[in-house]
Amino acid sequence: MTSKQLIDQYEFSVxxxxxxxxxxxxxxxVWDDNGKEYVDCVAGIGVAxxxxxNPAVVKAISEQAAKLITCPVTxxxxxxxxxxxxxxxxxxxxxxRAFLTNSGTEAIExxxxxxxxxxxxxxxISAMKSxxxxxxxxxxxxxxxxxxEDFMPLVPGFEFVPYNNFEKLVEKVSDKTAGIILxxxxxxxxxxxxxxxxxxxxxxxxxxxxxxxxxxxxxxGFCRTGKFFASNHFNLEADIMCVAKxxxxxxxxxxxxxxxxxxxxxxKHGTTFGGxxxxxxxxxxxxxxxxxxxxxxxxxxxxxxxxEKIEKMELSKVREFRRKGLMIGIELKEKPQPxxxxxxxxxxxxxxxxxxxxxxxxPLVISYEEIDFVLEQLEAVLx
Length: 383
Ligand SMILES: *Cc1c(COP(=O)(O)O)cnc(C)c1O
What we know:
Elements: H1 3-10, E1 22-26, E2 29-32, E3 37-40, H2 43-46, H3 55-67, H4 78-90, E4 95-101, H5 104-119, E5 123-127, H6 136-140, H7 145-148, E6 158-161, H8 166-172, E7 177-183, E8 185-186, E9 192-193, H9 196-209, E10 212-216, E11 240-243, E12 254-259, H10 277-292, H11 295-311, E13 318-324, E14 327-332, H12 337-345, E15 348-349, E16 351-353, E17 357-360, H13 368-382
Parallel strand pairs: 3-15, 5-6, 5-7, 7-10, 10-11
Antiparallel strand pairs: 1-2, 2-3, 4-12, 8-9, 11-12, 13-14, 14-17, 16-17
Helix pairs in contact: 3-10, 4-10, 11-13
């Protein structure tokens, strides 16, 4: 049987699939089983920022795999030590320690528990159009009704407020509010860009009311938006910052970065795989690559180049263009699915977001030539 047939038969599938079998990747490109080449603007959903099969990551995990793959956090480990030092060296300076996880959702889940444990309060506020993950805690903070309605009851004590609207947020705060959970730029919700004034007011509010500010940088972290973290655009100091996706060059990993305010629930939280040496070795290589190649600056320069060119194109299907670094949202006047198909045929793999948004999260190592190719195809399809 073909790969397609096998997956259709055996995978417990919860996603509608695109009709393609991806077998190989390098840099910003991937190839299907017919040898057709694509510029990958999904990049594992914002994961492959340092490029597919990044040679430094490949070397690091090969060497680490031959040495030690697993080691629980009940013991010290040399690679984990180096990774934590590296991670905290790029993190906002008020964040002092990290709990390592295997995914973004798991980071959010831990953050919710840490906020309750630290404040001895129960409730949370997150934003409309937010996305924070699919497990019951993270899902409770995720807005989209279709993701939630069949899985009730979720964790009690969660409320949603309009994004970027401080007054509406204040109205929902009570004595029970343990945490406020926000993305700096909403990814899945449609590439909605956070407002600086809003975030700084939220920061102050959290200080006044002893509320833990949980910033979800799972998609925006690690140079995607033109700074190492999107919080850096505003000098925003989270109490807890959740990261994942691009952190380890494609190896599953996440982290909960905590300020000194956060109390560790000793003996009351845990993980089997979190912080394993293999993921940590990949993380060291990926972060080193970001630093050495100034991927934050590259993201901004390339994003700007992309924007200048696309804005000259007068694309009739486009309602609005939104961007920070190489996190790109092209809001269309209708649903994006037919355009996704057309772009795939032309060798560009786009993501989608919200209801009508084409979302591009290309590897930050994408070349200008590849950007031009993507632009050409977008022009052909969206004119
Ligand atoms: C992807 C994502 C998550 C969930 O992360 P997983 O690694 O898929 O569990 C949470 N929040 C945001 C903003 C994301 O983009």
